[in-house]
Amino acid sequence: MRRELRAEWTKTRTAPGTAWLTAAVVVLTAAASAAVAATVSCPAAGCDQDVPRLGLAGIQAGQAAVAVLAVFAVTGEYGTGMIATTFAAMPHRGRVLAAKAAVLTGLTLAAGTVAVLASVLAARLILPGNGFTAANGHPPLSLADGPTLRAAAGTVLQLALIALLSLGIATAVRDSATAAGVVCGLLYVLPLVPHMAADPGWRRLLWQATPANAGLAVQTTTHLDDLPLGPWEGLGVTAAWAAAALLGAWLLVRTRDVRA
Amino acid sequence: MTDSTTVVTGHGANGRDGFRHLVHAEWTKFRTVRGWVAGMAVGVALVVALGLMSAAGSHASCGMGDVETACTLTTGPGGEAVSDRFFFVHRRLDGDGSITVRVDSMTGQIRLPDATPGVRNVVAGVVPWAKAGIMVKDGVREGASYAAVMVTARHGVRMQHDFTEDVAGGPGGVSPGSPRWLRLTRSGGTLTGYESDDGRRWIVVGTARPARLPATVEAGMFVASPGDLTVSRGNLGGASVQVRFTEATAVFDQVRLEGRVEGRTGGTWSHDDVGVAYEPGGRTPHHPGRFTESGGTFTITGVGDVAPSTEGMRIESTLSGQAAGLVAVMVVAVLFVTAEHRRGLFRTTLLAAPRRGRAFAAKTVVIGAVAFAAGLTAAALTVPLGARILRANGNAVLPVSTFTELRVVAGVAALTAAVAVLALACGALVRRGAAAVTVVAGLVVVPHILATASVLPLGVARWLLRLTPAAGFAVQQSVPEYAQVLGYYSPQGGYYPLPPLAGLAVLCGYAALAAVLAAVRMSRADA
User: Could you read off the pLDDT of A176-189 as tens digits, one per residue?
Assistant: First the structure.
């Protein structure tokens, strides 16, 4: 397994897009979080806002960069034919997939941590100027606060799980544009489907089943009783999607011909 | 030597023929790749299936108490949904004539959100669009054609007719000590509204030609007071709007009706609480209006509004699957260009058509036309069928003209085509499929979702729909915003900050810019 890990790390490290995309994860997340923090305001009478969630809203932008990073990790090799060389050198295909997943997880966790810390810092600096003050019940965002720490750590984990989900999908479809389309659909379009259901029971169930809705429950720190799922259970939904995608990818990569 | 001359002639002198050739070549490439055709079909299927499923899942019934009926809409002379509820004190006028009144005061009451749950919290006051004035109407049927001149609480004097038309007169309301005189004159099919501070110097407010005004009309005084709004924003996005009861009371005197006037019951005034709803049992009116008269002074209290109505579903709500469909179209458009680079086919394409800009233009034409056809198919199926299903399920769907419905359907097709061209151009610029798809989704679909289904503040949501390519979704809006109706006009409710064609123009601008950049890059970069 060490051989595979080393090979994957070298490939990822030297691929031209990796540095750019890792930087994009950090910049997009932090910039979008700061933009949201700069546009919301809290009147003097107080407001019912979930401040940690506002401060981490940039994940909506950053997750796209994570998805592209994950998709490139696989489809880059399929696109150039490199995958045949990879499998010739390391015939244990399941291990190659596992090594890819491990390298990607490490990279996303690192980028995600920086991105989340930058977002929290931006929100901590910007929000008090927009009326989110201790006087009306919103002390500055701090990771010493239990729920805020959970929201921040959960956001990093959600990014890593999105990377694994994207990796699984990309391995299954083997084409970069199609994989990105499917992942964008899962991240941005699927969350709308619960709103289309008229029946409240169905709406709740669909909300619980969509990774982009349920997974972000981990960012919620107020009105937890109104959520259809607990914060960690929500993250579990994304984890289940990622596990299913990786399992499917493993089965396909083991049985299929190298190239389409 | 002869051969090369022939080639030069083929591309130089017969330029148009050459381009047709290129388009034909690109079309052949497109239709012979099974995955791309399937991708477009998936896009159409997603729009139709998600749209019809959400329509089928949406049921509604109306009625008070135990009696449930299908929700019905009152329609005005132009076929649009209207609200026609007011207190009318009137007499029959045959042919030409005029009515003059003095409005002396306007007061009222407003129910505020309950301070103590369950206890009615009613305070004195008038809402900005409370109306008192004179009206000429084709009978007292709800939705009948009319023209009216009125004074409002905060929007000055207005001349309105047939629900959607509104012209502003002088500013200022009425208060004790400073009354307003109003006059409405009929001459054939034309009505002219006047206002005056003293009853002697008259200023024309406006003229109106109502659509269907018969020779004999009802002319008289009316008072209406639209409900007040409370908007509360949800924790997980979306907003709920609560309409609260209000009523307005106006005092009129110096009433003069000229022309051939018939008194239905011995020369006295008739009165109707037009459009009043009844409590269960059908006898007690719900929030009734009222009036008293003594010595030529009329005190009239009215509830409701005479205005276009936006309460109900819209035909474009059946397009809920559009974001999903657009993502599929983007993927196909990006693949249409990146696949050539990856397989090295592009070098062959350039050998066959060395003028690179033209090769790219031909690709743009083909993907634009294919996406237009796909969008047209999807919308032409989903919008009429979805609206029919919604109506069959008892939902009140706001009626729109055939022209508007065609504009929505054609607009969706144009939107799909523009998004496809944008995606194609991004694919040519970035040359990496995943990056191109994500960028285009991030430019088109994500801002729209953030603006219409998230907790973003209203101002930010509106700017997203002005500045990003998502502005193009405005082309779907079937019911306009009415300045004379108080409403929560938010992107969540389906109101876009730009007019339909302006929004589409923003998207097309982005697509054109990307296409030009892509053509430039293509002629400079290595294949």
Answer: 889 999 999 999 88
Residues of A with CB under 8 A from a CB of B: 17, 36, 39-41, 48, 50, 60-61, 64-65, 67-68, 71-72, 75, 79, 170, 175-181, 184-185, 188-189, 191-193, 195-199, 202, 222-223, 226
Of A41, A67, A188, the CB nearest to B449: A188
B236 vs A226: CB contact, 8 Å cut-off? yes
Residue partners of B53: CB distance under 8 A and separation at least 6: A196
Contact with chain A for residue B434, Cβ under 8 A:
yes
| CATH number given to B82-308 | 2.60.120
Return the bridge partners of B249, or none.
B107, B301
d(CA B345, CA B351): 10
Q: Residue B512: enclosing H or E segment and its boundaries?
A: helix B500-524
By the 8 A CB rule, do A59 and A216 touch? yes
> What six digits make up the tokens of B498?
């730009």
Summarize pLDDT for B344-382 with one digit per residue, the tens. 777 777 777 677 778 889 999 999 999 999 999 999 999
Size (chain A), residues: 260
One-letter amino acid at B272 equals D
**A·B CB contacts under 8 A:** 112
| Amino acid sitting at position A56 | L
> How would you class A221 by CB atoms within 10 Å of its CB: exposed for 0-12, middle for 13-18, buried for 19 or more?
middle
The domains of chain B are located at 18-56+316-524, 82-308
